[in-house]
């Protein structure tokens, strides 16, 4: 018997309801492959609880990776994709969570995105660190909260996402008034982009769901994440944008994305990012 994705998610949520609310291992189910993330609920309890609220409510079902900056981060958790209408909607945000900068923004960790200059503004958006971003993100904006770590061969999938072409798919010609200036794209050529071909689920990096695999609060005990390098003096409190994205090989649409970003930000700046 083959179960639908919704049925599997329903079973996972039912099992979660029968276990303690300290779920430390989750699975990201994506069109590029599935991978696991261990959450640090003992050291970043409020951040993990916040993340799991979105997981348990199904808010991350049929979402997508919205931002890719080479050698820096890939970011998601901000928008859902209607598979029938090929339209985008912003995920409704819960109350912001208190910043918990305990661990360092090392390669393979997941951290919360937030508004520039507002340390305690993280809600639903998160990002994976593609490199050691500690010099920047451990101090900037009072530090970005790392709340989990990719395990197993999961970074091979994250790296594959990061190697995709990316471009500016915001605006009326594409997906609407959303900050999608550096969105990774699949099965989509330069000619498609020039012709403004409609973006469908075949083109986005779809996150079909995020589900809980292990609800034990002890599953991260065997990991040794590095502590934050943040000093007591804090950081610059600013927003680097793509400050850590230098030195990499840009995707086919990379320059198009960067060229269109500055103008679009004048219209829409209130978005959580790093």
Automatic annotation (TrEMBL):
Signal peptide: 1-23
Highest taxon, organism lineage: Bacteria
Keywords: Isomerase, Rotamase, Signal
Keyword Signal carried by entry: yes
Keyword Signal: yes
Catalyzed reactions: [protein]-peptidylproline (omega=180) = [protein]-peptidylproline (omega=0)
Role, per record: PPIases accelerate the folding of proteins. It catalyzes the cis-trans isomerization of proline imidic peptide bonds in oligopeptides.
Designated name of the protein: Peptidyl-prolyl cis-trans isomerase
Organism in which the protein naturally occurs: Gilvimarinus algae
């Amino acid at each position: 018997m083959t179960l639908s994705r919704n049925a599997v998610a329903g079973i996972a949520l039912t099992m979660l309801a029968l276990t303690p609310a300290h779920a430390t291992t989750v699975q990201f189910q994506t069109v590029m492959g599935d991978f696991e993330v261990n959450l640090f609920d003992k050291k970043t309890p409020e951040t993990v609880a916040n993340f799991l609220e979105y997981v348990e409510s199904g808010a991350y079902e049929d979402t997508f990776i919205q931002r890719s900056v080479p050698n820096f981060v890939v970011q998601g958790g901000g928008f859902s994709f209607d598979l029938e209408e090929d339209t985008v909607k912003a995920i409704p945000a819960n109350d912001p969570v208190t910043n918990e900068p305990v661990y360092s923004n090392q390669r393979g960790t997941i951290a919360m995105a937030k508004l520039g200059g507002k340390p305690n503004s993280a809600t639903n958006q998160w990002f994976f660190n593609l490199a050691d971003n500690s010099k920047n993100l451990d101090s900037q904006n009072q530090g970005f909260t790392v709340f989990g770590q990719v395990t197993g061969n999961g970074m091979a999938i994250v790296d594959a996402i990061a190697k995709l072409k990316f471009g500016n798919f915001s605006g009326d010609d594409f997906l609407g008034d959303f900050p999608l200036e550096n969105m990774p794209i699949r099965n989509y050529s330069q000619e498609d982009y020039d012709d403004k071909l409609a973006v469908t689920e075949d083109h986005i990096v779809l996150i079909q769901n995020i589900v809980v695999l292990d609800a034990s609060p002890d599953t991260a005990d065997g990991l040794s994440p590095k502590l934050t390098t943040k000093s007591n003096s804090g950081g610059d409190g600013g927003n680097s944008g793509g400050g850590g994205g230098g030195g990499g090989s840009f995707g086919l649409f990379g320059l198009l994305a960067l060229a269109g970003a500055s103008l679009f930000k004048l219209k829409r700046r209130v978005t959580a990012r790093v």
